[in-house]
Amino acid sequence: QVQLVESGGGSVQAGGSLTLSCVASEYTRDYCMGWFRQAPGKEREAVATIYTGGGGLKYYADSVKGRFTISRDNANNTLDLQMNSLKPEDSAMYYCAALRKSLPSRTSCTTTVATYNYWGQGTQVTVS
User: Fold this and answer.
1) Which string of b and e fits 49-64 if b means at least 16 CB within 10 Å?
2) Residue 7 buriedness (CB in 10 A; 0-12 / 13-18 / 19+)
3) Chain-wide mean pLDDT for the chain?
4) Pairing of strands 123-127, 10-12
5) Strands 45-51 and 31-38
6) N or C terminus of the chain with fewer C-beta within 10 Å?
7) Among 89, 90, 72, CA closest to 81
8) Integer distance in angstroms from the first to the last C-alpha of the chain?
9) How far apart are CA 9 and CA 40, in angstroms?
10) For residue 1, what pLDDT band results from cuts at 50, 70 and 90?
């Protein structure tokens, strides 16, 4: 049972930056991992995904391309999301998620929320 713990959320002015981090309780090699977000009254959506086994393609939602960067530190078993040029519409609860999966090279991880079976408790991001 993988446990995920997020940190790094907070309040920031529009145009600012935040870095979210997610630490996994177990070694998560060969996992799809991603950041998802959910704003009040809206469905949870994928923000960015990455495959920890190597060879996969990163995914970014169109709304964050060029502003957010997902990265993985295998040595420390952490997943980061660098968020720049933040906008008020980026305000949401951000969740880290993981799914153990064998992924063919040059493909990206699924963005379907229901397929991920490990979730963190979330960290709030508020942009004003």
Assistant:
1) bbbbbeebeebbbeeb
2) middle
3) 95
4) parallel
5) antiparallel
6) N
7) 72
8) 37
9) 16
10) confident
Task: Kindly state the average pLDDT of the residues 35-52.
Answer: 97
CA 42 to chain centre: 17
> Does the pLDDT at position 27 exceed 90?
no
Three-state secondary structure of the chain = CCCEEEECCEEECCCCCEEEEEEECCCCCCEEEEEEEECCCCCCEEEEEEECCCCCECEECCCCCCCEEEEEECCCCEEEEEECCCCHHHCEEEEEEEEECCCCCCCECCCCHHHCCEECCCEEEEEC
Q: Which amino acid is at 75?
A: A
Confirm if 113 and 46 have CB atoms less than 8 A apart.
yes
Tokens of 58: 């990163």
Query: Are 78 and 8 within 8 A, CB to CB?
Result: no
